[in-house]
Amino acid sequence: MATLIDWLKNINHRFWWIIGGLTVLFIASLIFVTHNAMFYQQPIAQIVKITDETQTEVADEHQNQDIVYTQHIVAKLKNGVQKGKALTLTNEYSESRAYHPKLTVGQDVFVSVDSNDSGQLKGDITDVKRDQALLIVSWIFIMVLLAVGKKQGLYAMISLAVNAVIITLAIDMYIATSNISLLLIMSGAVILITVLSLVFISGFQAQTYAAAVSTLLGTFVLLFITMFVLWLTDEQGIRFEEMAFLSRPPQAIFMAGVLIGALGAVMDIGVSMSTSLFSLYEQNNAISNKDLKASGIEIGKDIMGAMTNILFFAYVSGTIPSLLLYLMNDATVGFTFSMNLSLELTRALAGGIGIVLTIPIGLYTTIYFIHRKRVKA
Amino acid sequence: MNALIVLAAVLFLLMTIIGGKKGVRSFVALFINFFVLIVAVFMMTDPNADPIILTLIACAIISCVTLFFINEINIKTKTAFISTFLTTALMLLFIFMVTDQSMIHGFGEEEVEEQTIYSYYLGINFVKIAASVIIMSTIGSITDEAIAVSSPMYEIRKHNPTISRKQLFFAGMRIGKDLLGTNANTLFFAFFGGYLALLIRYKDLNYTIGEIINAKIFSSEMLTILCGGIGVALIIPVTAMITAYVLTRPQKQKASG
Fold it and tell me: Same domain, yes or no, for A185 and A320?
């Protein structure tokens, strides 16, 4: 506790000014997001009163028991020509909340207004307005990253934002010119992201080049190996048809996803290898290539387990709700796993291959750049 | 031949060649962790079991495997474990509130449309499960960062035994700050890669920005990224504090590390 207080005291005045400025921005954005209904095309209504709530117990054919609640709601329209008028809505949700949420007074919802012949407006709820929650969590994210990381926290956020913009632009480009392959466009995005992120972290210097070259080599070798294995095995065991949210052929989207998904982890390895080997070289300019190799492999061994683990959980955890849905609907374990896990496991394994391969790739690339520096010196 | 088996074999081979014994252990650890996750899912099908508590236990086992099995049991991994556990518990409470307030729990419209044959009246609490998903997605990252902070702190203390608790804490914070960006990046890309299909779908179906932001699946993805970022930031002061405290305890109380 004492260390925490010391740490808080250590934060300087300028930082408090920044905090003050951010607080003002926070309040302003919160006010905006609670009053932004006019900017939406879809009608938005705020729940004023929940007049009645009935419940029925249900059991499905798999002996799962649940309770279904029906809420009768009075809401007030917040935008459009009928702004200010009251309308009645019904919401049906289950105790388990597997689909519809339980609504409370004050909540904003998107509605479609149905009939108004008898003067009384009726409507259906299409979705919940979530921008406010998203905004608040975004602010918590910003505050925590700044409080812990200060300048590095800020850099991390800028870098994330830039990367998000690049990927979004790449998707826009793909949609606009659908004759260019998605994989090609994403490869371009990957190169741009790698170069920008690494130069942003450590500037124009030999170790940045080493990290960038290793990252790109690692990423594309991973892509090549994955494609080769899929071709070799005829994509057996991989349920592309189970890929969610499809609006286009799955293979291309899946491979582009593998490429983007592993990029962060591969970049992490590339940076770790080049930074640590270069710092060994800075400490002792006469260090032999053999010693560098030995240290590099040791460093690699330490990080490979952790990094493969990170990717694994980031991918596989998202399948938990679907796994539960299948299992509780009495699907067999084999069917459940093959339908829900094959794609995520492929991603995780492919990413893992990329991570592990980037260790020797990073090692030799960095040694090459150190060698070049030696020759010059 | 099954593509998954071939890919797993390639990964195993590479990990063995490059990582030696530690590589093999890392590969085995992946399988143990996968098993733990699956067991947790099976236990969640029981409506009487609390998914939050199951998740906390699963996360504790997963970080045990990652820290004590791949590495070894020593003072560094022990402090990393305590820090991971505390941070996970804290984050779970926070994320539970977030999933409840933002109503991102359960399945999205797009998913329900695709799986119409199934009953959704399952009697298990999907608000809590949504929180479990988010924390499980980031547990690998949080554990990694804990050991990445506690391990160099131990080295600093070893080379400089007179260092004060406060100085050691700040040293830990500095180390952590340098890792923050890359760790957040790793998670960010993993989530983005996984949801590429969704983003393309939104663009294909001409969703407006307002519709995208409020859509359940998109906001839940965004909240996962944000909560992941908060988690990898929060683990830094927690680990720095606990490690600084443990390493600078008076000598007589110090247990063998």
Answer: yes
Mutation target vs B (from A328, A337, A355, A361; most B CBs, 10 A cutoff):
A328
Last-in-domain residue among A129, A152, A171: A129
A250 with A353, same domain: the answer is: yes
Residue where one domain finishes, among candidates A98, A114, A129: A129
Taking the CA atoms of B13, B14, B17 and B23 in sequence, report the sign of the dihedral they define: negative
Residue A27 belongs to some domain of the structure: no
Residues 6+ apart with CB under 8 A from B18: A297, A300, A301, A304, A356, A359, A360
Taking a C-beta distance cutoff of 8 angstroms, is the pair A137, B102 a contact? yes
The CATH number that applies at residue A81 is 2.40.50
The domain tally of chain A equals 2
- How far A131 CA sits from the closest chain B CA (Å)? 6
Q: What is the structure's pLDDT at B256?
A: 47
- A365 shares a domain with A226: yes
A223: CATH: 1.20.1640.10
Nearest chain A alpha carbon to B192:
A261
Of B30, B98, B199, Cβ closest to residue A137 = B98
Exposure of B161 by Cβ count < 10 A (0-12 exposed, 13-18 middle, 19+ buried)?
exposed
CB contact under 8 A, B106 and A100: yes
- Quote the domain boundaries for residue A97: 38-129
Specify the pTM. 0.89
Does residue A27 sit at the B interface (CB-CB below 8 Å)?
no
| Count of beta carbons in the 10 Å neighbourhood of residue B211 | 18
Asked if A229 contacts B176 with a C-beta cutoff of 8 angstroms, the reply is no
The 8-class DSSP code of residue B206 comes to T
Residue type for position A109: V
| B253: DSSP letter | G
Question: Is residue A224, in this structure, part of any structural domain at all?
Answer: yes
Please give chain B's pLDDT, 257 residues, in tens: 688 999 999 999 999 999 999 999 999 999 999 999 999 999 999 988 999 999 999 999 999 999 999 888 999 999 999 999 999 999 999 999 988 888 888 888 777 777 777 888 888 888 999 999 999 999 999 999 999 999 999 999 988 889 999 999 999 999 999 888 888 889 999 998 888 888 888 888 888 888 888 988 889 889 999 999 999 999 999 999 999 999 988 765 445 44
Query: Which of A149, A257, A308 is opposite residue B196, by nearest beta carbon?
Result: A257
Domain residue ranges of chain B, discontinuous segments joined by +: 45-253
Residue A230: inside a domain, yes or no? yes
For B45-253, CATH gives 1.20.1640
Give the ipTM of the model, two decimals please: 0.91
The number of beta carbons lying within 10 Å of the beta carbon of residue B34 is 17
**Residue A267: which residues within 8 A CB-CB, separation 6 or more?**
A194, A197, A198, A211, A215, B182, B185, B186
User: Are B185 and A159 within 8 A, CB to CB?
Assistant: yes
A264 domain residue, yes or no: yes
Report yes or no: A354 and A308 within 8 Å, Cβ to Cβ. Answer: no
Handedness of CA A219, A220, A223, A229 (dihedral sign): negative
